[in-house]
Amino acid sequence: PALGLHTVNAVYGDTITMPCRLEVPDGLMFGKWKYEMPNGSPVFIAFRSSTKKNVQYDDVPDYKDRLSLSENYTLSIKNARISDEKRFVCMLVTEDDVSEEPTIVKVFKQPSQPEILHRADFLETEKLQMLGECIARDSYPKGNVTWYKNGRVLQPVEEVVVINLQKSVNKSTGLFTMTSSLQYMPTKEDANAKFSCIVTYYGPSGQKTIQSEPVVFDVHYPTEKVTIQVLPQSSGIKEGDNITLKCSGNGNPPPQEFLFYIPGEAEGIRSSDTYVMTDVRRNATGEYKCSLTDKSMMDSTTITVHYLDLQLTPSGEVTKQIGEALPVSCTISSSRNATVFWIKDNTRMPTSPSFSSLRYQDAGNYICATTLQEVEGLQKRKTLKLIVEGKPQIKMTKKTNTNKMSKTIVCHVEGFPKPAVQWTVTGSGSIINKAKETRYVNGRFSSEIVIAPEENVTLTCIAENQLERTVTSLNVSAISIPEYDEPEDRNDDNSEKVNDQAKLIVGIVVGLLLVALVAGVVYWLYVKKSKTASKHVDKDLGNIEENKKLEENNHKSET
Asked: What is the DSSP string of 329-390?
């Protein structure tokens, strides 16, 4: 009795195993397997005798050396082919009866992993073009191909997504190859898109899929925007810097040539994507532009070339005389607000120097400096080396030391260059070499000697530099007579008072002498007049002249 239609699913290349789904009857003589041609006619392929236990395989070329029939009448076919997809029948024969049980064989072949071949070198936006072909080979039965972009199914869209699937069969194997071509119109956003394809096929256990490796395409698109940059991107460009202008377009591939528009140039300068300017000056300040070579799409930027000029008058080495005036000016011209500061002998000055009457301490190295804070490295400085010269000036002081055994004589000297000082004793004219000098500061120093004279002496201090030789003397009493000078500043005041008193006394004396002289002349004239009145009027000229001479002599003697 039949147990119903049975199907065996086999994998291509594997062994097909078909049990005979009949109960073995009593009195079995032999078993046979056959398959049915498409027109229904049978082709016997295997025979097994139940009594003799021998097996025979029919001479069917398709199944030569591929068949095996077991004792329980299970038929095995090695190396399954697509042509094995048939209706096979197991036959068990007794003397009285023939039992048959059909088995349907289905063969499945998994396709190869799909590949995207004949790929486009690049894609262009706004243009429908062949992206590539997805090929899955050697499938059975036929499979289906689906395209994906970034993991999402690409559905056909007219003039944007055009898919064409073709299936071909290998006549010798009966296996199918699926080829799906994709025409696609990309956008800029597809620049990094991953395209893949999946083949869907049927296996013994149902529907399955295999995915291709993803593919990314270079998407070409036109430039929509031009950008100009200034390199290096520093906060401030200063005179002497090198500037590189860089122009870029946002297309792919990016444009290689541009037109650069430079201030003062009427026409654009054709160049690669960079334009270099070396050692720029302040007149390079202005608006810079660049465009595509067809003059479409332009961008601009403004460049400011910072500058800083400093003028110091006078500068360099300047020699002046003490007491002279020296006007000094330090002026700046710059692209931003800048301030000057002064340094004298490495110390910053609180204010600018001003010299209405030069002093020795005004001498030194002056630097007028300025800097632009917002521009790195933009600073200027000029120097003035001021030399203040003066002839030697001397002031001498004396004092008896507290031990009453000696006197200290000091020669206070001013002058530049530093004067050389020499002491002598008047009378003997001998030079004293035991002088002690203080430090020379701001054009001043002092030389002092300690002496114990037994009698009054005169000391002479000689100070000499390249400008003049100055000599001053001072009388010093014997050691037995103590004497003290007032401190310097008070002494100056007192000497002025003494001088004023002396001038006053001399003035009074001279005034009194003049008054006495005038009174004497008036008295003499009065006496003369009296004498002349008593004389005779008829004196001759000779007498008159004699009298005149006598009067003159008298006047001289009186005087």
From this structure: EEEEEESS---EEEEETTEE-SS---BSS--GGG-EEEEEEEE-TTSTT-EEEEEEEEEEEE
